[in-house]
Amino acid sequence: MNPVNILLVDDQPAKLLSYEVILEELEENLIKAQSAREAFEHLLRTEIAVILVDVCMPEQDGFELVSMIRQHPRYQNTPIIFVSAVMLAEPDRLRGYAVGAVDYVSVPIVPEVLRAKVRVFADLYRKTRELERLNVELEARVHQRTAELEASAAQLRELNEELEHRIDQRTREREEALAQLFEAQKLDTIGHLTGGVAHDFNNLLMAVLGSLNLLKKRLPADERSERLVTNAIQAAERGTALTQRLLAFARRQELKPQAVDFFRLFENVEDLLAKAVGPRIEIRKSIPADLAPLLVDSNQLELALLNLFVNARDALESGGAVTVAAAAAEDARPTGLAGGNYIRISVSDDGEGMDEATVSRAAEPFFTTKGVGKGTGLGLSMVHGLAAQSGGSIQISSVRGKGTTVSLWLPVAETFVKVQPPVEPPATEPLKPASRPLAILVVDDDALVRTGTVAMLEDLGHLPQEASSASQALEFFADGQGCDLVITDHAMPGMTGAELARHLRSSFPGLPIILASGYAEFSEDHGVGRMLRMKKPFTQEQLQAAMDQAISGKVVAA
Hints:
Layout: E1 5-9, H1 13-23, E2 29-33, H2 36-45, E3 50-54, H3 62-70, E4 80-84, H4 90-99, E5 103-106, H5 111-218, H6 223-251, E6 258-260, H7 262-277, E7 281-286, E8 294-296, H8 298-315, E9 320-328, E10 342-349, H9 356-361, H10 379-389, E11 393-399, E12 403-411, H11 413-416, E13 439-443, H12 447-459, E14 463-467, H13 470-478, E15 485-489, H14 497-507, E16 513-517, E17 532-535, H15 540-552
Parallel strand pairs: 1-2, 1-3, 3-4, 4-5, 7-9, 13-14, 13-15, 15-16, 16-17
Antiparallel strand pairs: 6-8, 9-10, 10-12, 11-12
Protein name: histidine kinase
Organism: Rhizobium changzhiense
GO molecular function: phosphorelay sensor kinase activity
């Protein structure tokens, strides 16, 4: 227990000594003052717990001193005990209480009484100070706890905001992923739809071309009529070329690199590219005629050019120009390219351009800035894949507000593979009538195609018969009828041509079969790998050549 300070005020040294003797048992700090001035000096320098004041003093009596002490803010609640050697009347006591005294002790002093009263007030002082200290500590702890709670609340708010942000971000990502999935599914659906439409269109072209060719042979000598029929045949042949492009897109064929003359390739697709970008966009080109051949899949390169032109068109909403340039790559090549010679093909536009962040992601699959429904985000990724699979690379440079340049680095053909020049087909000889008429079964679910094929066979002097399905063809053989050759369509409802051929081979191993289809390529999962095949639409000359191969046993692709 820490001792407290007790101030003893009396003008007589003997009385101060007696107080000191009586109170020394309390083991407190006793401070003595013989005047009011000396008492105030101690009060201003030291924290006092209890004050004992003599009532009768020469300069200032106890009442005046206590009144002055109470005016000091620090001692307004300090216990003050009056000590009086004379009997005070009741009004004097009331006056003492009025000025601020809390108790009276009369002389002669009873030591036990004085010690008891001083001890009570000293303990009260200690407990008051302890309570004040505890209050300060409590306030500090409350303040600290409040600060911790506020910090926790702020952290919780930040976590909630971050969680909401992450939820919003994940929601956007999910919506974008769903949109991308929808676009991918739509692209796949378009591929299947394109293949189906092109197949049906090939059947129509088959009937048109066959009929026109037969009609041309039977028309009387009339230059104007011949010119009209020839024009119709050329239009149908252009339609055939168009369906081949559609089917190539639909089947997503593997790359077949070969030596490609880019100058001629661009000339062949320039009209298509012009139609793709529209009349408000000018196409400029800088392609030398003596450019070295490229080692690339020509069909996929055409598709890559189409994708780049469509992207340029979208960047040129108000019109402008697209420039195609090709030259031997002599400047710094992209990192990762193997040694050798390369041709750099660049497609540039003067459109709105892209910022760095967009350029860095431009070749990512499904990344697009065109919005849902306006682009799949696969165009540049397909171009990038073509370049990578061809042993080349792609570079994209763009400046916001100035335009974009996409450069394809493709290998020169002679550097990597020595491509044999294509063998020119022999000049078409006039068709010779067959040595004998052949009995031929024509199987096709399309009546127009059957009619056209039968007409071409009859014109060649053969004896064709018709079947509108594979089941009818099987019934034909089940009835005991026979033929020298079967020409069957591949894609038919119920049983396909390949399945029909497999059934016929098991029963008639030596029967020649020609499989025709309006699709770009045949599936190898029906055992048609070694079967003679033709692609629709075919001409009478191609039909005759396939028949000759089938009859002679030369099973090669038509």
